[in-house]
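Exercise 7. Predict the structure of FUSC family protein from Sphaerisporangium flaviroseum.
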Amino acid sequence: MRGLFRRPADRLADVAPGWLVETLRPVQASPRWGAMLRVTAAVTTPLIVGLAAGRITIGLLPSMGAMAASLADRGGSYRSRIIRGASAGIGGAVGYVVGHAARGLGWWTVLVVVAVSVISALISTAGAAGSQGALQLLVMTVISLGVPYPETPLTGALAYLSGASWALVLSLAGWPLRPRAPEEAAVAQVYRELGHLVEEFGTDRAARLAAFDGALKIAYDTVLGARSAAAGQDTERTRLIALLNQAAQMRNALISVEQEGREPPPEIAEAARAVENVLAGGDPPSAPLRCEAGSPALRALCSAAQAAVELVSGREVTTERPPYEPVGYGARLMGVWAQMRSGHLIRDYTIRLGLCMGAAAVLSELHWMQRSYWTMLTVALVLKPDFGSVFARALQRGLGTVVGAVIGTVVLYAVPYGPAILIPVAIFAALLPYGQQRNWGLMSTFQVPLVVLLVDLLTGAGPKLAEIRLVDTLVGCAIVLVFGYLPWPASWHAPVGPRFADAVSATASYLRHAFDRDDPQRALLHRKVFDALADLRTVFQRAVTEPSVVSRRVTTWLPAMTALEHVADATAATVARTDHGARAPSKEAVRAAASSLDDIADGVRAGSPMRHHPELADEETLERVNCAVRGLRSTLSENGAP
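Solution. The predicted structure, encoded as tokens:
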């Protein structure tokens, strides 16, 4: 039953010509190598076509569109990758038209730049696709203002879109062979992390649980993102949802087994590896899973593992309710609009971006720098709201630009102007995905010389171009720090406290419904807890990259975050036991624990320490949860609300 997760109509690999399979196989083999090959082909092909036509510069705009769409491809389902790449292409094309129309307007250009900055900031609130489109809208407006492309607005926009479309074609190259490859890979990663969690049971537990929770969240987002576009019921994607649900149950049961002082049976790790193998295209297990279950926790663990093995062995699967609320397009648009109108963080960011872009545009009109549009580009890239700490981005981009400019200077000295420059262009394009996965500074190190080489093809400025880029970029970083960071007190305070309070409230809501197996909200509330904890960890990690005056204050939240994770894990583990034979706690005891968590959340939002201790019911069945709640309250009482 190899290839269980491909329907007969999907098995193009079985009937496709051998040359097609072999051509696409490297792209499928390794995500990193596949990304490097895609970006290299996407960026260099338009230049090669232009070279063959006798004018290499006609490939510049398609090459830039291809680079934008390629960098927007950060994995996920094919549907989400198409949306992000198309958004980047359309945003860049519109930006080219706007910039071309505003070129030569003098000081009116400053108002155009500020207006586009405000629009870009608002569009960026509409999720990942909106963020990519907004970035390229602003970037291409600035580039079109500063670089005298010979193409007309319509021709240039179509050229840019053609490059983005070419990049999308390469991103979708594996779709005919395995239409559900991204979803299957995401679920396989969950079971890979689950295998590590079982094999290293009791060792570095917190890190392993965090890795599993992160993989599970990504997998749910990937599968549900693809599933929402499927016409009718898709049995195999429903099976993937069921596998994710079983993996979540195994995770909770493992914690329960640990609390009982037991070791998980070796068959559990074997089951996780077997599921991962089938998802990778291997054969399903030849025999059903046999597992000893001598306690409620072990029964919960073995039951979930057996169900997962049966799912990949061909068992019929009924409709699985995903632990997420279905949100229609209308509701999403209304949510984005409400965030634009009432979100003070969005308003602050919009003002900061407009102010900084306006300052950079004023410098451009004063003609103090030779290529001042690079200063505006730096401001746009550093002030992106979803790329982490502004301070860290300014520092990393400054350092990355220094290194990249030096590399670009050396390349321009060593490589003569003309077709030979395609070789370093291909090398830097291949390195972009690697730098993007590592950090902002390393991506700048590879992106700076690539952009320098592309612009040099049009201007022929030579090595001096890299030096100009270095100065202009450092000026842009300084503008961000002076106008977009230091005058804004909100920049000095990371929103860890509100996220922490939200996670505590989510835990309390889940606890109230956790022991009612018939409650349809239980799975949804369970996922909301771990999503809230994941958001909290993300905010915390971004905050610790701020200057020490901010990061020192933020690190005081770490003990409380650890204590809150213990509460969530103790709740999930207790639920796993009660679902498989253990006695459930009374409703009064559950309400008391949930009320205590609500009191903690209210205290954190008010900024006051935990001064009083509400009574918790003395029930053995809820002992571990109550102990974890007391530990959380004690941690906050000792440290105060940070």
